[in-house]
């Protein structure tokens, strides 16, 4: 509660500024499709915890701007936050966008001194398709298909994962057109891709899986909450610190604000979800 109060003060204080580096290229080969915006607390600093933020949009839509406000909030609270673009489907079809997110994580860690962050205190956060990619980074950075060939090279898993309404088992959602387009075929045509692209498939395969916070609305009609429940249960069975925040009656894009009014927003942007995320980051990465 004290940490949340401190965060609220930071967000409303006119004295707490943010320094932004826009359109930083983490892979020069693909232009604006592989850039990030880096948000840092004004006044410098070093060894800060960092959060790599991966936008949603069914792997086909939107950009790093979707997380601009949330990234600024985190920077005002003392975190370094980086929102990323990645190649969208069709150009980003399997495994390209998975490689992009891996490359972005490697780039952010490689530039730790420049951005004042600790490379061993980096979380990944995403919602919907971004939640899927964040979850995949937590369990599958060593998978050959997802190894990036960018200048930043490869890196290990993040130090914490926040996955909001992320598809965790694409095999159970194989009927969705967006998943077929992402993976380049039906489950009968490319079954191995449905396995490898499913975070749930990789649980239990490695020993260095970071803590997970899963956030999901109980009334999500796009990605059933059972996806996050199954991921939580599998991670826990493997000895991983995994928690699920269930947003009662929450949808994928329609949720209640702090007064109980319904409005367009993700379940991860609800007041209770924001408080849970700050607490999780403090607990797993350490406070800024």
Features:
alpha/beta, 288 residues, disordered N terminus, 8-stranded mixed sheet, 21% strand, two-stranded antiparallel ribbon
Description:
- The protein has 288 residues and is an alpha/beta fold.
- It has a single domain (18-285), classed as Alpha/Beta hydrolase fold, catalytic domain (Rossmann fold), CATH 3.40.50.
- It contains ten helices and ten strands.
- The strands form two sheets. An eight-stranded mixed beta sheet has the order 1-2-4-3-5-6-7-8, with helices on both faces. It has a two-stranded antiparallel sheet with strand order 9-10.
- The longest helix has 15 residues, at 96-110.
- The protein is globular and about 55 Å long.
- Mean pLDDT is 91; it is low at 1-15.
What is the topology?
Elements lengths: L1 H11 L5 E8 L9 E7 L6 E7 L13 H9 L3 E5 L11 H15 L1 H4 L1 E11 L1 H12 L19 E5 L12 H7 L7 H6 L2 H4 L9 E6 L8 H12 L4 E6 L6 E3 L5 E3 L6 H15 L3
Parallel strand pairs: 3-4, 3-5, 5-6, 6-7, 7-8
Antiparallel strand pairs: 1-2, 2-4, 9-10
Write a brief caption for the model.
The protein is α/β, with parallel strands linked by helices. The chain contains 10 helices and 10 strands. The protein has one domain: Alpha/Beta hydrolase fold, catalytic domain (Rossmann fold), CATH 3.40.50.1820.
What's the CATH H-level homologous superfamily? Answer: Alpha/Beta hydrolase fold, catalytic domain
| Percent of residues in beta strands | 15-25%
Quickly give the structural class: alpha/beta
Strand order, main sheet: write it out: 1-2-4-3-5-6-7-8
Estimate nothing, just give the exact number of structural domains: 1
Compressed to H and E, one letter per element, the order equals: HEEEHEHHEHEHHHEHEEEH
Mean pLDDT: 91
* Helix percentage: 25-40%
Radius of gyration: 18 Å
Q: Can you count the helices?
A: 10
Main pleated-sheet profile: 8 strands, mixed
Instruction: Write the CATH architecture name.
Output: 3-Layer(aba) Sandwich
Oligomer classification: single chain
Number of strands: 10
The CATH topology, please? Rossmann fold
Give the overall shape, derived from the CA principal axes.
Answer: globular
Low-confidence stretches: 1-15
Overall CATH class:
Alpha Beta
């Amino acid at each position: 509660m004290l940490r949340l109060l401190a965060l609220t003060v930071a967000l409303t204080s006119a004295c707490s500024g943010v320094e932004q580096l826009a359109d930083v290229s983490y892979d020069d080969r693909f232009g604006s499709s592989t850039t990030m915006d880096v948000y840092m607390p004004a006044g410098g600093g070093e060894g800060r915890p960092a959060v790599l933020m991966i936008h949603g949009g069914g792997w086909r839509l939107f950009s790093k701007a979707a997380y601009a406000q949330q990234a600024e909030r985190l920077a005002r609270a003392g975190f370094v936050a980086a929102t990323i673009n990645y190649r969208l489907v069709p150009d980003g079809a399997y495994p390209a966008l998975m490689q992009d997110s891996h490359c972005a994580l490697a780039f952010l860690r490689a530039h730790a001194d420049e951005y004042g962050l600790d490379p061993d205190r980096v979380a990944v956060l995403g919602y919907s398709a971004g939640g899927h990619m964040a979850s995949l980074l937590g369990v599958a950075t060593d998978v050959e298909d997802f190894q990036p060939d960018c200048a930043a090279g490869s890196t290990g898993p993040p130090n914490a994962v926040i996955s909001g309404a992320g598809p965790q088992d694409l095999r159970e959602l194989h009927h969705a057109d967006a998943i077929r387009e992402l993976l380049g075929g039906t489950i009968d045509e490319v079954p191995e891709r449905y396995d490898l692209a499913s975070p749930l498939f990789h649980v239990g395969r490695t020993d260095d899986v970071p803590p997970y916070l899963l956030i999901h609305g109980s009334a999500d009609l796009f990605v059933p909450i059972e996806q996050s429940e199954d991921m939580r249960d599998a991670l826990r069975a493997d000895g991983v610190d995994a928690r699920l925040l269930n947003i009662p009656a929450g949808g994928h894009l329609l949720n209640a604000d702090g007064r109980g009014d319904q409005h367009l927003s993700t379940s991860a942007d609800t007041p209770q979800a924001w408080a849970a995320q700050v607490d999780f980051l403090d607990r797993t990465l350490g406070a800024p």
